[in-house]
């Protein structure tokens, strides 16, 4: 039973605080909502406000742009494969770190976080110069290499949080009842961390899907969707098309985030000891 | 009657046959081997791919570029670092550090009310709403967010329109006339860059502060009031110091992310460069990887100190 | 008499810490064996050595004559009831109980039937559909028991299973466990720090301290004839009397243990009675415990209810049968 330690609930919050918090939250969301509005504007050449008119035709135009589809396809492929790699590596690492005490344990936690803690440009340049030194041509796989590296930490964090909440005696109980290591993994461990892995995987997918900085350095001629968008930002072709794509991206990444939230929120009831 | 039942009378059973059975016994008997096998793939990956390339990059900062051929001379020298210290480059570094600091402070100020409310007053569905309300922008596409501000700050965009409607355009022009932070328009000024940075990194500051505030037991505030402190005194002496690790944790992100960013200043900003842009420019067509590498050392060193400082103040627990 | 579990000079060291130090055990088939001791005494480690979660640093373990060290827990026909029950939260009660059967390939209808039977045995018929999170502590404990018993293990290990239950429930479970063991005839090995529990349930008790076995015996032996001061102190409370005192009052010049309930309030002048002053009283319901000062020794006496009780500070005489004065070989 978790006691709400930090709670002043039950007493009314000062009005000023409520307003400030509300305004802050609005500040966070309004710009994105604005893009939604701009996706319907009839004005093509500028970002005029208020929009002179509203239309749905840009959706059709975007649908017919082959470069958008190519970029989208590449982004999805890269994100999928990077997520799978990150899931395997992240889970292995989390299992090892939470399961036993060994020399260098904290160093590993730091190492896993580093790709995301250091600015993307450093990771990007480091990878780029390493690839050219090793004379690896830039391709789909160099992009994946970069993405998987910083996606590991997202899976790792989710997995290790769940491992820590799972009672250690569950594994022992399973073995005591006759299940060997692999059976225990399949019947006991996996069901208990499954939703955490799913959440981590979804967040990793969203992260990879959105990533632009490291991708710029590790891609060759390929364009992922963010790279496409960056191009459009610098040299716009049809501004409303960019807006439509932006809106779609927000909506699409909204879903995995929501799902990940629900998956890990209920974790308190799913994992946990038998007491 | 299964095989299991037949051997049920034995005290020690034979395990499952096959590869998995045998492997299971071996792994159980050798916990160190199991650990080794589990850690090798991720460590190999991170060690070789990530650490390896980082190391290679830092190594390159000790090389230099031949001025005439444009090729990289692979011999140890400090001349690249010397070049880093010339006035134009120092200018870039100072500009970046100042912006990072400003964004950090701004984010802390803006984040605190939101985090405070979410941590201490929001209950039930409001708590979920706030959580999602912070998570969604956090994970929303970075480029979309930057793009949105390009729209907002554009000459014909909503912000200017708003100022015009409120008859405050003179205020905007006065602000833009201020040197350094002003510029030709909001979209081409350091103010604009500042606003975008602030917006994009704000969720990174809110979450650790909220986490830190949530860990403050509710009755501390009551105890402070009980002992006679005014709300302001309670804030300064109880809440703020306890929230400080969270603020420091959040500032790690705002500082680090601002220092390395090259896209935001490019899209919303003046032509004066930041570290990120300098790195990008030098490694691009100029091929001056040594100088680019030297530039990257600056954020690494700064973050190194900052992280050490943050760890001492207990910010790592708030991450 | 078959030996169910044999420990021959078994040790388990963790670096410099000797959790288990050259322990010999000989647990007979079909008995209810208790391992009693304070925390850190090594009793739980011994249980884990039997289950296979720990491997001995030295020594030899046999389960029904077969070598057990080096054998993983999933290959031992031994099952454990864990202290925190360790029920699988993602499975319902029936699947929890049937887990051991499922893992060994028993067909679904067969294992369901056996699981239901096991639940009936622990008096939880029809609870199969619930989830562990919906059960009370006592119910979870029964499910854990059923889950272990359904596999018909040769030895059942119980790790402080009654610790989390309240007093009434604990006493009820003690009776049930005892009758269950008698009915099934399986060897039960039971770890507890509660000496009352060990005394009331076990056929034999091993008293542990600091990794070593201090004494093994029936409850009566361990209680009435403790071989060392530690056992005298730990199993029930006892007055431990130094050699001089013992010599003055009818015994040899040795340390001796005298149970508080063996002392009676006597009239002054009774031969052999110990003069003492009352320093405190504790009302226990069915009896009263008196704290006394007798010739400089702190002594406790337990007087049954109904008699007259002396006031604090009163001078009394304590009488006892010399047969109750148990001389101990070991003063430790």
Radius of gyration of chain C: 24 Å
Oligomer kind: heterotrimer
The tally of helices of chain A reads 12
Q: Which percent bin holds the helix content of chain C?
A: 25-40%
**Structural shape of chain C:** elongated
Structural descriptors:
heterotrimer; B: 319 residues; mainly alpha; two-stranded antiparallel ribbon; 73% helix; disordered N terminus; C: 332 residues; alpha+beta; 5-stranded antiparallel beta sheet; 10 helices; elongated
Q: Could you explain how this protein is built, in words?
A:
Chain A is mainly α and 275 residues long. Chain A is built from twelve helices and no strands. In chain A, helix 6 packs across helix 8 and helix 7 packs antiparallel against helix 8. The longest helix of chain A has 34 residues. Chain A is globular and about 70 Å long. The N and C termini of chain A lie close together (12 Å). The longest helix of chain B is centred in the first third of the chain and has 34 residues. In chain B, the strands form two sheets. A two-stranded antiparallel sheet of chain B has the order 1-2. In chain C, strands 6-7-8-3-9-10 form a six-stranded mixed beta sheet, with helices on both faces. In chain C, strand 4 and strand 5 form a beta hairpin. In chain C, helix 4 packs across helix 5. Chain C is elongated. The chains are: A mainly alpha (275), B mainly alpha (319), C alpha+beta (332). Chains in contact: A-B, A-C, B-C. The interface between B and C is medium-sized, with 14 and 20 residues.
Task: Detail the topology: elements first, then pairings.
The complex is a heterotrimer of chains A (275), B (319) and C (332).
Chain A: H1 15-38, H2 57-63, H3 66-99, H4 105-117, H5 120-133, H6 140-165, H7 169-176, H8 181-210, H9 213-218, H10 225-234, H11 239-265, H12 267-270
Helix pairs in contact in A: 1-11, 2-11, 3-6, 3-8, 3-10, 4-6, 6-8, 7-8, 8-11
Chain B: H1 3-6, H2 18-29, H3 31-60, E1 64-65, E2 72-73, H4 79-84, H5 87-120, H6 125-139, H7 142-153, H8 158-165, H9 169-177, E3 183-185, E4 188-189, H10 190-214, H11 218-226, H12 231-260, H13 263-267, H14 275-283, H15 289-312
Antiparallel strand pairs in B: 1-2, 3-4
Chain C: E1 3-14, E2 17-28, E3 32-36, H1 43-51, E4 58-63, E5 66-67, E6 78-81, H2 93-97, H3 99-103, H4 108-121, H5 137-149, E7 155-159, H6 167-184, E8 187-192, H7 195-201, E9 204-209, E10 212-217, H8 219-224, H9 229-234, E11 239-241, H10 243-248, E12 256-258, E13 264-266, E14 274-283, E15 287-294, E16 297-304, E17 315-319, E18 326-327
Parallel strand pairs in C: 3-8, 3-9, 6-7, 7-8
Antiparallel strand pairs in C: 1-2, 1-4, 4-5, 9-10, 11-12, 12-18, 13-17, 14-15, 14-17, 15-16
Helix pairs in contact in C: 4-5
